[in-house]
Amino acid sequence: MKFQSAEAISAVDLEPPGCAVLVVGCGNLLRGDDGVGPVLVRHLWELGVPDGAQMVDGGTAGMDTAFRMRGAQRVVIVDAAATGAAPGTVYRVPGEEFAELPPLHGLHTHSFRWDHAIAFARWALGDACPTDITVFLIEVLSVDYGAELSEPVTAAMNTVIDVVERDFLAPLRPAKAAEVTVEFTADGYLRLDAALAASRFASDAVAAIVQDDDFLLIPLRGPRSGGLLLKQRNPAGDRSALVHEVLYGRIPVGVQRAYWDDERGALRVPLEVTT
């Protein structure tokens, strides 16, 4: 058996990989609305994680959250709140407001939550602690064991998802071109290049329909929405889906121009009228 020398071991980089945006969902999935943070992270996974972002189910392990922050440029923490406000109320709070609260004196792992994590990270990580930290808190209705998310908390969660996508994740996604090209194959596959797939169809879940003389490819929120899945067809990240049943013999074989239709929220490919 061979062992590494002390010099070789010391040369190993033990630092976690940095990222542009770290999203951490905290809470207990077993206790109704208290699980809103981890549930939100699962929805963000389904929407597609852009390069440079990391999504973490922080559960109830606040100390893990603290060390996860190392190397991140921006951090988003999402958790439930119980302040007595109306269920579904959303608070957006700059992380520096929690930097000194609660006090760390006498803290132990069983009582360590995300609000301790910010103060602990500033102490433990020093200059490596991110300075751009945003906390979203969602007021709960019920934290009963085994319960699903309540309606007001679900609605609030979707609002936070939209804000996180707009303010933190969208800048990491490829630019959205209004005019692109797609390819149809004779055996009924639609092919998209990696940039188009990542910018418009990051969740890989789509609906395909023919409307009048247009083929429409509509992004869905994730695989649980149904529809077709865009499968990765090469290491470059290009995607494909089998659409021959949708086109019913009207497959426009070859490379075709496509246009993003804002009104219909879909990629539109004009089909030539055939007789």
UniProtKB/TrEMBL annotation:
A Gene Ontology BP annotation from the UniProt entry: protein processing
Gene Ontology MF term list: aspartic-type endopeptidase activity; enzyme activator activity
NCBIfam families: hydrog_prot (TIGR00072)
Annotated Pfam families: HycI
Domain of life of the native organism: Bacteria
Keyword annotations from UniProtKB, A to Z: Aspartyl protease, Hydrolase, Protease
Similarity-based family: Belongs to the peptidase A31 family.
Organism: Mycolicibacterium hodleri
Name the record gives this protein: Hydrogenase maturation protease
